[in-house]
């Protein structure tokens, strides 16, 4: 007599498989929501920092335009280069360095050197430094909000 081997799945095996698949889908959806939330917070911080940097750059450009107009007025009233330099020392501050706050940890620092132009339409200043400087160390975010909205 031949032994018949019946291959069959038990009734509970398919239920366990479906429960396992559902648990995997729920786990992956939770991980993707957490990842998307972290990416959104990071992109929000980056957008805020970029906006603050370009706001400081706009303020610096306005200052440079005003300074260039002042140097042009001094150039028009000067007879030669040495008189031009003397008037600059008298009317402007010794150090032509400006700083604009970006956030509580950084400033945009700009240093300018006045130039004696060859014509009325020449450059009256040269930017010798345009850099972001750290004034304080940022506080790292060490929290791990697993179920929080932050």
Short description:
The protein has 150 residues and is an alpha+beta fold. It contains two helices and three strands, in the order H-H-E-E-E. The N and C termini lie far apart (71 Å).
Would you mind describing this structure in some detail?
Helices cover 52% and strands 16% of the residues. The longest helix has 67 residues, at 11-77. It has a 3-stranded antiparallel β-sheet with strand order 1-2-3, with helices on one face. The chain contains 2 helices and 3 strands; from the N terminus they run ααβββ. A hairpin with a 4-residue loop joins strand 1 (97-101) and strand 2. It has helices spanning 11-77, 81-91, and strands at residues 97-101, 106-114, 125-134. With 150 residues, it is of the alpha+beta class. It starts with 10 loop residues before the first helix and ends in a 16-residue tail after the last strand.
C-alpha termini separation: 71 Å
Mean pLDDT across residues: 86
- Biggest sheet strand line-up: 1-2-3
Q: Tell me the structural class.
A: alpha+beta
Major beta sheet, specifics?
A: 3 strands, antiparallel
Question: How is the quaternary structure best described?
Answer: single chain
> Any low-confidence stretches, pLDDT <50, length ≥5?
none
Task: Give the overall shape, derived from the CA principal axes.
Answer: rod-shaped
Helix fraction bin: 40-55%
- Which band does the percent of strand residues land in? 15-25%
Order of helices and strands: HHEEE
